Structures are given as C-alpha cells and as structure tokens.
Amino acid sequence: MPLFVPILRLLMLFLNVYDSYKTLKDPAPSSRNGGRPSVRAVSQRKRDMKGCLAVWMVWCSLAMYERLAESIVSLFIPFYDELKSLALLFLILTRARGAEPIYLHLIRPLIKPHTRTLDGMLDITLMIGDFIFALSMYPVRIVQHWYH
C-alpha cells in the first residue's frame, strides 16, 4: 500500500494539469455567432474553471496537510494508508464533482474569516520578494555596464 499512494498522487497531479490545460483553451468559435464562441460554450468554460480551481484548492490543502500533520495523524488512525488511498481514488474518479463540495463545506469556511489577514501577509511577502529581486539585479547591471 505505501507504493499505491504516491502513484495515486502522481495520477491526480497529471489529471489536474491536463484538466487545467483543457479548461484554459479558448472555446471553439461558433459559425452562428460570427466566429465568436457561443454563450453556452462560454458559460460551460466558466463552470469548468470553477471546478478546476476547486480541484486545485483541494489538492493544495491535501499537500499542506500531508506536510504538516500526516505523520502525527497516521500514528493514531488504523489503516490510514488505505483510507487515504480511498480518498485519493474518490477525488480522481469524481474530479470537480467531488472537489467542489469539499472546497465549499470544508476549506472555504476555514479560510473565509482570515481573508483580510492572508491578503495583508501576501502583499507584504510580494513587496519583500520584489525588493530581494531588485537587489539581486544590481550586481547584474554592474556586470552588464562593465562588459559594454
């Protein structure tokens, strides 16, 4: 069973990437609509994007859980690997239909009260990253100036 979980995780990752690729493609142009996509195709694409984002949110939450708490939780739950394999198999087989309720009823209620704090932390992190990038580019500019 220890080999089955990584295989399922890789399969789920591949399916997530492939679904994202298919979802991000522009809808086919309609001959009835002057070469633009039909309203139905555009609304279907929006639904697909919503489902795809829900799948990625569940995937990221699962990855964070595995990194932070899985080693402790797995000690106390018998047949943990088997239960985890069933959960991954459920997510693989149901895709967005299985991920959207998990996102709507578990993940979103946990994140929603902390949205303002998380936005502030991400803005500060972005500013620090921009500053570090600007500092790292300074030696490159010196070398470029010296080379020319």
How would you describe this protein?
The protein is an all-alpha fold and 148 residues long. It is 82% helix and 0% strand. The chain has six helices and no strands. The chain has helices spanning 4-24, 39-68, 70-76, 80-94, 96-111, 115-147. Helix 1 (4-24) runs antiparallel to helix 2 (39-68). The model has no long low-confidence stretch (mean pLDDT 90).
Give a nutshell description of this structure.
With 148 residues, the chain is mainly α. The protein is 82% helix and 0% strand. The protein contains six helices and no strands.
Rg calculated over all Cα atoms:
22 Å
Q: Helix-strand pattern, N to C? A: HHHHHH
What profile does the largest beta sheet have? none
- Number of extended strands: 0
Helix content: over 70%
What share of residues are in beta strands? under 5%
Compute the separation of the termini in Å.
60 Å
Report the average pLDDT across residues: 90
Distinct helical segment count: 6
**Helix/sheet category:** mainly alpha
Q: Spans of 5+ residues with little confidence (pLDDT < 50)?
A: none
Silhouette: extended
In terms of topology, how is this protein built?
Elements: H1 4-24, H2 39-68, H3 70-76, H4 80-94, H5 96-111, H6 115-147
Helix pairs in contact: 1-2, 1-4, 2-5, 4-5
Keywords:
mainly alpha; 148 residues; 82% helix; extended; single chain
